[in-house]
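User: My collaborator sent over this chain with a note saying "see what the structure looks like." That's all I know about it. Can you take a look?
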Amino acid sequence: MKFPEQGQDTGTVLTKLELMKSEDLPWEEGKVFAYVYDAGPQAMKLIKNSFSLFLTENGLDPTAFPSAMQLEKEVIGMAIDLINGGDKAEGSFTSGGTESIILAIKSARDFANAERNISEPELLLPETAHPAFTKACQYLKIKPVVVKVNEQNFQAIGCEMEQAINDNTIMMVASAPGYGHGIIDPISELGQIALKHDILFHVDSCVGGMYLPFAKQLGFDIPDFDLSVPGVTSISMDFHKWGYAAKGASAVIYKDGAKMRSYQIFAWSGWTGYSVINPTVMSTKSAGPIAACWAILNHMGKQGYLDLVQKSQTAANKIMDAITNDIEPLRLMGEPKANLFAITSDTVDIFALADEMKTRGWYIQPQFGFSSSKGNVHLSVGAHNADKADEFISDLKMMTAKLVTEQKGPSMQQLPDDIAELVANPDERLLEKLSELLGSDGTNLPERMDAVNNVLNLMEPKLRDKLLADFLNQLYSSADKSVFEGVKIPKIYRLYRYFKKLLGYSDK
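Assistant: Without extra context I'll predict from the sequence alone. Here is the result:
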């Protein structure tokens, strides 16, 4: 796409933006069990208005925009109160869980170097830890030491974690809960291990920090996980998940706040411009996300979040009970305590099930097998899904029965010969060759993904990652035409449906 020679009126620009959204998941219908967190139209309106109110204010310089700093101090204060941080806890508002995790690891690395003379740092984590930890290790040149988890419940194993500690260990990691299976690691047990060996201990509660405290208060079976647990020294938590804030809202919080946060801050005067002081990775940043976060926290209050969690957990429990008791070919993985869980099957093709559910308007997230975790589908159940729980269960039963009748299962056990041969001898054209075999041109996904997912599920993770990275690289190629310069054939029908909807015509 070329840079436009002339400007366009606002109506035209907004219409084009709406057109681009037409191929996105229709999350407003409550049928998407990932990516989206919606507390309802009133909350959404407040978030948009408060974000817009602070859109231009810049969090880079608190002396120029003290409102941004004050908003952050109040949001972090509320978070510290929620996760029982205590009087010495401090933290920072970040753009998301990945940035929060990167900062926690940077602080641990620099603390270990300055105060313990560790020059070859290692990060200890269970294999269920979020990939953001591995990304941080790559960015910060830290060795990740990955420990296997319990094969039945997918929890970190305390004695195995302890055995992996050595003189270079800068920090241990656990999840509350882990995203993949919704499992909460044994935080109290691991905290004692951290105290025994005098190492830092970070709890990744990005997906649980704004959910588990309320679920625990409501009486659901939630173990201790936060900064009140002896041995836990830092925690990451996202507001833009079950806090229902606008995306770009997370926090990293330290038990010994002032000390540990000092290792996080970047300051530089060694150039010809102004002195740069950044408490987080980002420098210039809109105050919109922090304003929207502050607004939704104050609007909902504890009672508002208790109501949302009660609604979400009731729906999640209903779905999990149906899977356990009424849909025999399916089973839960581990013993999830909250509103995230994974479903698998020994007899039904789980990736075909995801595609069949898509024909009924549902989006459930495929997850590939790794170590003791076989291929599965993930659900994150929010308040926006709750009213659809019965309909979802009904469709899940129907689509599972359909696959059983059609004998579509189990998921692929070994690669077809032609694909296995390609994978055994990979070259720079592997993605292109596989795309041809799987019915794609390498730049657009096929309508059904079960064949692709089954193949990827059986690949070695390193090869799978290389293929997915190459594919994403192609998708983002600037050489592709804009949707407005030339619509590719596979998109024609979707655009046709969009224009019918735009004009008010029925799609039936």
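A starting point for your reply to your collaborator: Residues 31 and 361 are 7 Å apart (CA to CA).
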